[in-house]
Amino acid sequence: MRSSDRIFFIRSVLAFSVAICFVALFGIALWEYLEESKVWFIVPLLVTSLIIGYLIVSYTLSSLFKTNRFLDILLKDTLHELNIPLSVINANLQMLQADEQDVKKLKRLERIELASKDLYTLYQEVDYYIKKEIQSDVREKFYLDELVTKVVEKQKEMANGVDIFYNVLHVELFADKHGLAKVISNLVHNALKYNQNHNPLSIFQEEDTLIIKDQGIGMSEAELFLAFNRYYQGDTTKEGYGIGLSLVKAYCDEFKIAMRINSQKNVGTEVILDIAYLLNKK
Fold first, then answer.
1. Does this UniProt record's set of keywords contain Transport (predicted)?
2. pTM score, two decimals?
3. Which terminus of the chain is more solvent-facing, meaning fewer CB atoms within 10 Å of its CB: N or C?
4. pLDDT tens for residues 3-23?
């Protein structure tokens, strides 16, 4: 525990201890002096407790609120400034790649380009969460097939030879685009991670549902029951922390996407997302 956290903890404990003692003494005093209508002393006692509690908690948490405001401003300012060096890196990288002929140096530049893309992805991730916190509605219009194509192209980098087939209609959605991309990306990533024998996986649309189907290791009924628990992993030898499906569930609950999972051990898993609520019906 940091020294600042320790001081904050001690201050909070002392403050609440004083508040409890004061309220207790106040209650005892009222109980002694009120003979007939002792029940009514509860009302002023509660009001006094609330006022004292509010004042004390406001005082003890003021430093925490101040620190949070500072960190919030620092994060937003840093994120804004981060976009500038990223643009400079990409612009100069393109010029170096255009002029370079040496194969080894080009490979090094490609690694730098991949690292730059990863950094930009992290930038977009933080930017998304900040916008979601500031704005009450982060929904926008976009096309489902374009989103799925983008997700699949990115996941192909980690597919290790597994084919990803997709057939999605050019339908317009009105939704949290970044959030839905994370949902599909997590589901595809899981299908790739638990794949067996390099069997292909499919993403397709049936009316108002989007389906991600694989021929992986599958899940038993007991595993299905635990699948959305945060940090749960069916196979702890695989990479990751068991967070992906809990994020998928949280997004689907927030944006009213009904989700069903059909799975059978050693046969495969089928995730069905009802996207009817997201369709931009004019």
1. no
2. 0.60
3. C
4. 555 566 566 666 666 676 676
